């Protein structure tokens, strides 16, 4: 094991690997507790990795907007796609401008494997502690001590602990006097209260909804799950939810006025899968019958599913969450280099920072953009 290096990168995830790829000619080492690099990349996007999005704006992120804009603009989705194309990775666009690997997330990991010599990567090594030593640092790992002039914290968040996630990045930040905002599971499903336990009978069914969380409105698909609700719209909603009520419009296209004289059975016209419609009608104690036979009261009851308000019991937690909300406060990070303004030579990248992207490739874009800015800062 190398025990002295100029730049020590903690974490061989998306941001650490991009940084390593951009540090050509420099003396650096990446350490990670996993037996392979890019563990999260490999399982991301259903195994195909949603690398970025054709439409990246600061408001796709929860985090200080000016900081996000300043970082993203230096290496945006176009720059990323061009960089990947030079390395023969041409992602394909799927729905909602999302760029995915053609066949497997391995394509992206392979790019990093080609860019970074294996001599610069040390796996199966747990990072345990870090101390400032003169002008540099000493990092304690499960395999011994490593001295470094500069340390880059690219250790990600708390989600998916089975893939190596630990709190080390936040611990390091705090030990150097950085503030860490409240952390919680993000891009994750909601558990529900007993009144919503009837959702369980719809487990596996998806439906188009509009979810309102505070000021934020999210349109998309909701998936009924065994323990609550999930699916893209719910995952995005989790980014804006702390506690309290959310409102779901289960029938965003319903126009009651136009239906009142219809002779069709109500379960067929609500814009819901029949199974969902029938479950909702049963819940409301309404027999399925032609629309023109429904009373005004019954229509009112049906419309309650257009503004179905309830307080989620919680979330599915870090074991299922795609990201961690919150992180190292941006106030003490220099957006032009990603360096700490408290400790010279200490840098933070990617998810460990207090920036979280919506679903759609934004989190990898953030990891890659922040890595690029850091690489420039290290020049
Ligand atoms: C199931 C899933 C699917 C996802 N899909 C997408 C997607 O399609 N598109 C998208 O944009 N985002 C997606 N994300 C989010 C994305 O993976 C992360 O935001 C991104 O990987 C963050 O990059 P990072 O470099 O900051 O951290 P990570 O990629 O998490 O890398 C951090 C690395 O540090 C290592 N580490 C942590 N603690 C220690 C320690 N103590 N010692 C040694 N090593 C340590 C970890 O093992 C890890 O390898 C997904 C996440 C999950 C969980």
Automatic annotation (TrEMBL):
Stated name of the protein: NAD(FAD)-utilizing dehydrogenases
Keywords: FAD, Flavoprotein
Domain RsdA/BaiN/AoA(So)-like Rossmann fold-like: 6-376
Keyword Endoplasmic reticulum: no
Record's keyword annotation contains Flavoprotein: yes
Cofactor requirements of the protein: FAD
RsdA/BaiN/AoA(So)-like insert domain residues: 185-323
